[in-house]
Amino acid sequence: MGRAHEVRAASMAKTAAAKSKLNNKYSRTIYMAAKSGVPDPESNLALKREIEKAKREQVNADTIKRAIEKAKGGSMESYYPVRYEGFGPNNSLLMIECLTDNENRTMTAVKVALQKTGCKLGVSGCVRHMFNYYSVFTFKGMSDEEAFEAILMADVEPEDVSVEDGITTVYAKSEDYQTVRDALVAAKPDLEFLEDLVTYVPQNYCELSDEKEFTQFRRLQEMLDDIDDVQDFYHNISNAPVDEE
């Protein structure tokens, strides 16, 4: 059928694999959020946040529904979070967050990925203190002054509010996520978020300096993406290559 067919088939297979991993990721996080409290997003803010994140990434409704129903059914399946910290190309800082039901399996897989890409696994806590855990919101259509005032009116003091190229960015404490989000939406009901999450933000950044370092990092991304237990990957590389689907 020719090269074009092979390329299309490979692309379709990659897309299907990425979709499957995404569904698996949110199936776990939604299940755990539902298990940690009541399985109702209106009463469980953690669950509501995970569902909103899943919808933004176009996770299908059946996956969300099954995860919640599974939690309601009292399933004995249990995942728990583990974090691995280490150092990547050019002494970059790495944090790999996982949800697993078998820590030995997960640690082995992550350790192999790091070793095969010339990276190093560190001890717990060696990197975490170099990141801030923030609520992050980015959007258009509201100035930094308007956003700052709206947040202050909600009795919250943001960590930082800035604007660049018409995009306003708000950083706030992780525990203030819902209050800040509600305040911004109340001030501008039709506000559409470009980013709306709680995440780790590096205190300092580094840059990859040559093709070898870029190759190392790309390979690490690929290997971590192949590990089902890996949920999120954080680093402090300012010029990191973007993983294209």
Concise summary:
This protein is of the alpha+beta class and 245 residues long. Among the domains are: 3-72, Integrase, N-terminal zinc-binding domain (Arc Repressor Mutant, subunit A, Orthogonal Bundle); 129-202, 2-Layer Sandwich (Alpha-Beta Plaits).
Which structural class is indicated by helix and strand composition? alpha+beta
Broad CATH class of the domain at 129-202: Alpha Beta
Q: Number of helical segments?
A: 7
Query: Which range best describes the helical content: under 10%, 10-25%, 25-40%, 40-55%, 55-70% or over 70%?
Result: 40-55%
Instruction: Give the second-level CATH assignment, the architecture of the domain at 129-202.
Output: 2-Layer Sandwich
Distance between the termini: 24 Å
Shape: globular
Number of strands: 8
The arrangement of helices and strands along the chain is HHHEEHEEHEEHEHE
CATH superfamily of the domain at 129-202: YebC, transcriptional regulation domain
Largest sheet: 4 strands, antiparallel
CATH level 3 topology of the domain at 129-202: Alpha-Beta Plaits
> What value does the Rg take, in angstroms?
20 Å
Q: DSSP strand (E) fraction?
A: 15-25%
Any low-confidence stretches, pLDDT <50, length ≥5? 1-14
The largest beta-sheet arranges its strands as 3-1-2-8
